[in-house]
């Protein structure tokens, strides 16, 4: 990634976990209300924020709720009165607050949530799996994965910028792989407050803000007379969000140097002359990139696509990118039992997005890394080999392989 | 090139210590123009008191940060360690962090001509005799000192942190130079004694590095369990219980064969059966049900399962009847009651020799460190006396 930085934009470097980097982003975004309820791996964020507040570096309401459901309701209401709000959770905690997650989206309240991805119980497991965050994919949320601590901090700022945009006003879920990112310590460049203020305007809910001077009623019972029109509005906002996302990254680059390259929604690694690529979300990029380097040393034309934005799905941009290749291997760190092709969630999104393309690559699917299991470099090489085979034989299209399971 | 450092530590008691060492390796390496990052073995959490855990630091002088992360990130454990730090020497007897993992050798990951850096007051041969034989040579470096134990959220500032950094500089100046270590500590704290502690550890460890040959060590006695395939166990997350069995005598209670937890302990209880009043408190209070009732009314200890928590010694009402002793003083886990029955006087002499007169009372939860007191051992034929109670 290009790192040309204007002087004075970053003020210092610190060793931070992914969670602590998010907390720094919260401080810089000058968030007003934080609601907290512990569950690993999200918990470290609430710990870090409470320390920042205790140290006098942020003035905010910090409310420890009695459950995730209350936690999510608190920030929803805070946003409705115009407060910039933050909450987060993981795994089953996230699911426990699901009712509140749905209404936050239908009420179009731009709260930022961290989802420290964790396997859904049962059986008990703390490691990463993406099904928790993916569960909100149809609800009117923005949903984005980051792969490094630096990106995590920056996407808190980008997240508020995009979610609060008048064209959007949707809640934003910032997902990051539990353990591998939430709990790994990296040297992170901390932007200056002055630079952040140039990028991120204050939150202004305008005429929708609930206030004694501006009496409004939010989300009354409407039944069949109104629901469809409201859904239609929200559909429009979700569509507009794509354009706002690109604009936000452009503005970010103007302030912070060329941190991100178009098309922003995803990032390509050594794909220029590639015949075969893998696509995935989150830290699976790490073994996949190493596999790309090793295979290229042996003359294989392979590359990797790191999908950052899942909602809104970057349909056209991704189609334009992926149709260049002979085969695409989709990595799912999730499951979708009984789904078309019996593949994972991302497989169906990618295949559906490619359907209108005149020339389509073969698409194969890998279910891997569930419950926090390592995806090794060897696993990634095997995924490339199967995808290369799919490029040679059409009949493998849609084929699903479980990688790293004890067979 | 990538340098991988693993830090083996005792869960909870050394958690903060290990994390600080890992983080500072990265910060100091960065001062030297290298890139790095640090993380823990996530499956160790939530940690139990004393259980063997790991923290890692990864450093490269020539790769980009992104390349280093791609090679080393998003992994649960490492495949190999250039340096394996051991913050408590009793872990040389093996480490079993969780069920179905088996008791693994502490030197499992060390590479040929890599380093084991062990905090210990023991001589090299006293440590190597417990460690697995490797097919290749490696080095054992000893940083003289006691295991630094604190508690959850507590950091015991006894300079172990600074000393380990100095010791690492002695082993691999390319990883961390002693100048960089000292410069970092000074800039961070402006405290001369921290810099000095690192320097002294650097000097002493340079004189305390020993090659371990493929002839040294033991054939590892523990098997690594084989995890079942996806179609080999019950659907619906149903796990069969260990069948409940009981008979009087050693190992008379059925216990979980796939998680023994004995490697959790740094001390073990030594029992003077001749002083025992059969009050039942050790058996009743043991949180891990390690005491087996014997036909003659005593309570044998199953050391394979004892985690060394010290509860039995704490509740025992008889002076010198149950005493916690450094785990490295013992060769095996055989039944102490059988030993005593076979040779009552020999057992008592053996027990007293192991106990010595120092009594190390760890006070780990408060982080104030361990207390050492002198004891008055009860001779053979001595009568039970009420135990003195600290603070009572």
Report on this structure.
The complex is a heterodimer of chains A (407) and B (392). Chain A has 407 residues and is of the alpha/beta class. Helices cover 38% and strands 20% of the residues of chain A. Chain A contains 13 helices and 15 strands. In chain A, the strands form three sheets. Chain A has a seven-stranded mixed beta sheet with strand order 3-2-4-5-7-6-12, sandwiched between helices. In chain A, helix 7 packs across helix 9 (227-256). Chain B has 392 residues and is α/β, with parallel strands linked by helices. Helix content of chain B is 25%, strand content 19%. Chain B is built from ten helices and 13 strands. Chain B has helices at residues 15-31, 65-72, 124-128, 160-171, 178-189, 192-206, 281-285, 311-315, 336-342, 344-355; strands at 3-10, 35-40, 52-60, 81-86, 110-120, 138-144, 209-212, 267-271, 291-293, 299-301, 322-326, 358-361, 371-374. In chain B, strand 5, helix 3 (124-128) and strand 6 form a beta-alpha-beta unit. In chain B, helix 4 (160-171) runs antiparallel to helix 5. In chain B, 45% of the residues are buried.
Notable characteristics:
heterodimer; A: 407 residues; alpha/beta; seven-stranded mixed sheet; six-stranded mixed sheet; 13 helices; 20% strand; B: 392 residues; 19% strand
